[in-house]
Design brief:
2 domains; NitT/TauT family transport system substrate-binding protein; alpha/beta; D-Maltodextrin-Binding Protein, domain 2; signal; 16 helices
Length: 327
């Protein structure tokens, strides 16, 4: 007759204690893993410092996730729908987003386009006045739309005076002939992809009143949820932006991404003005008033109800607090 194993009181006590501890452990909620800051970066020179910082291991992927997007409208939708927390957008694009009901804050100016955004036409069209009735390709509701409107105004024309052809800049090289375009609005580096078409430059952002300011636009919640990551991101920009202009092998990741040579990329940078930390503080702190004045002025042309637009002041959108917290 088999004898049952005898369990001592101590053994039973230990087993009960283990069971209690396991039960308690199961009741403790597991803290959710913190998501990284998601930043939409388009194909634009002013966004490339972050790509270099990431490649150099200076941006921790657990803290900052760069989401590469080839066209601006995709970045606008992504930040508007909170698919990403921040994006590099032009000032006019930020205004469009806010007036569509998507709250954004501007925490830094990345750069100013002084000729890197262009309106280009076929060889038989040499001036803006000749564009009346022509087929012009551009990315709607972006800085390209604003630049086209600005160019047409100079010839007393309106958008309705041309045939508007919505397009994705990344596809222009393949579809320019197919769409029978007479002209196209592009930013660098896409302009470089069209060199074989021998297009004329009839207007660009180097002209008076046509400069395009690009900024880092952030969802307000991210200013709280990802404040440290945003500070790291901004530090990386100010550290790596000067290195873009120095050239060399360290730019290889950028050159591969943009599909241009080192020489061509340096030509692009001649039309891009860098904005350092000190000037950023002056601009967003409104010590230098021109950016705030531009913000107000742009709303008149972008929003139908200009009086309502004027009620949106720079102080409601510009946030220099992160700049002040940079080490």
């Amino acid at each position: 007759m088999s004898q049952r194993p005898f369990l001592s009181f101590g053994t039973i006590a230990i087993m009960v204690l283990v069971a209690v501890l396991w039960g308690a452990a199961l009741q403790v909620p597991v803290p959710p893993q913190e998501e990284p800051l998601r930043v939409a970066v388009g194909m634009w020179a002013g966004a490339e410092p972050w790509v270099l910082a990431r490649e150099a291991g200076e941006l921790d992927s657990r803290q900052v996730n760069l989401v590469e997007m080839n066209w601006t409208s995709a970045a606008m939708r992504a930040v508007g729908n909170r698919v990403v927390d921040a994006a590099v957008l032009s000032l006019d694009e930020v205004i469009r987003q806010i007036h569509q009901g998507y709250p954004l804050r501007i925490v830094m100016v990345t750069d100013i386009s002084r000729g890197a955004d262009l309106l280009m036409t076929k060889g038989n069209i040499s001036n803006i006045a000749a564009l009346k009735g022509c087929r012009i390709g551009y990315e709607p509701r972006t800085s390209g739309a604003w630049l086209l409107s600005k160019a047409l105004q100079n010839a007393n024309l309106k958008l309705s005076d041309v045939q508007q052809v919505p397009l994705n800049p990344a596809e222009v090289e393949e579809i320019f002939q197919e769409l029978a375009l007479d002209g196209v609005v592009l930013a660098e580096p896409w302009r470089q992809r069209l060199s074989s078409l021998n297009l004329n430059k009839v207007y660009d952002s180097s002209l008076s009143g046509a400069s395009i300011v690009r900024v880092l636009a952030v969802h307000p919640d991210a200013l709280v949820e990802h404040r440290e990551a945003l500070i790291s991101l901004m530090q990386a920009h100010f550290r790596w932006m000067p290195r873009l202009f120095q050239g060399g092998e360290k730019l290889n990741p950028v050159l591969r991404r943009e599909g241009v040579s080192g020489e061509v990329f340096q030509q692009i940078l001649k039309n891009v003005e860098s904005v350092d930390r000190a000037q950023n503080r002056r601009l967003l702190g409104r010590e230098e008033p021109w950016l705030g004045e531009l913000f107000v002025e742009l709303q008149k042309g972008l929003v139908e109800d200009s009086q309502a637009a004027l009620r949106l002041q720079p102080s409601e959108v510009f946030d220099p607090s992160l700049l002040e917290e940079l080490p």
